[in-house]
Amino acid sequence: MAKFFSSGSLQETHMSHWPMVLPWPPHVSTSSCQVGGSETSKEAKALISSQSHSQAEKRRRERINTHLSTLRRLVPSATKLDKATLLGRVIDHVKELKRKALEIGNSFTVPTEMDDVTVECDRNGALKDRFIIRASLCCDDRPELYTDLIQALHGLKLRTVRADMATLGGRVKNVLILSTKVGEEGACLSTLKDSLKEVLGRIVFTDVSSQNTNLSKRQRTMPSFWSN
DNA sequence: GGCACCCACGATAGGATGCA
DNA sequence: TGCATCCTATCGTGGGTGCC
C-alpha cells in the first residue's frame, strides 16, 4: 500500500484511515531525502501531482454521487437503496415507463422516436364517389414543417377531411385523413408518399447539419436539464 | 509530454446481522 | 449484550487512454 496525506494539513475527516505503521513522510525514504537536491524537488512535484490526482478523483466521485442522488429522487421508493440496487431499480423504472409510453402510443396519436411516413387506403371509410386515404408523418418539430407540408400537398388532387396533430418532447406526429376521386387513388398514394418523404428528408437534412456529433472527451458537460 | 478523465484495487470505517 | 462477520461507501493511488 502506498498511501499518504493528500493535503498539507492532516485530513480531519479521514485521519483515522491512516495506518500507524507507515513511516512519515510517506514515500520518502531517509536515504533518498537530500535537502535542496533534485530528489527533493522530484518528490515535491510528485506530492503536488498526487494531491491534484486525489482531488480530481474526489470531484469525480462527487459527480457520480450527485447523479445517483438525482436518480434516487426520480425513482419512487428508492431513498434507502444502496447504489447497485438503485441502478437496478432505475432500469426497471425506465423499462416500465417505456412500456407505458408504448401502450399510450398505440391508443392515441403520439409521436415516436423514429421518423416515419405512412400512407394507406382506408377502405372502410370510402364514400360513394370518393376514396379515403390516411397519411401520417412523424418527425422532429420545426417551424417550417407546416409550410413544407402544405406545399407537399399542394397540387395533389386531395381534399383534407381531417388533420390531427400531436407533439411531445420536440417531436410531432401529423395524421391526415384525405379524400380523392375513386379511380385516382392509385397515382395519389405513391405521389403523396413521395411528397411526404421529401418533407421528412428536408427536415432530417437540416437537423443533421445543425448537430455536433463529434464531442471530444473534454467537452463532457452536464446537460441543462440535469441541473433542474 | 502534459493534462484530464476513467477504472480497478486495497485499505478503512461504520452500519447491519447473526449468534453464543 | 458483546462479539464476529458481512456489506457498503469512501478514500487515495497506480495505471491506462485520448486529446491538445
Automatic annotation (TrEMBL):
Gene3D superfamilies tied to this protein: Helix-loop-helix DNA-binding domain
Source organism superkingdom: Eukaryota
Protein name, UniProt field: Transcription factor bHLH51-like protein
GO MF annotation terms: DNA binding; DNA-binding transcription factor activity; protein dimerization activity
Transcription listed as a keyword: yes
Annotated stretches, region: Disordered: 29-62
Entry keyword set: DNA-binding, Transcription, Transcription regulation
InterPro entries membership: AIG1-like, bHLH_dom, HLH_DNA-bd_sf
Compositional bias per record (Polar residues), positions renumbered to this chain: 29-39
Positions of the BHLH domain: 48-97
Organism name: Cinnamomum micranthum f. kanehirae
Matching CDD domains: bHLH_AtAIG1_like
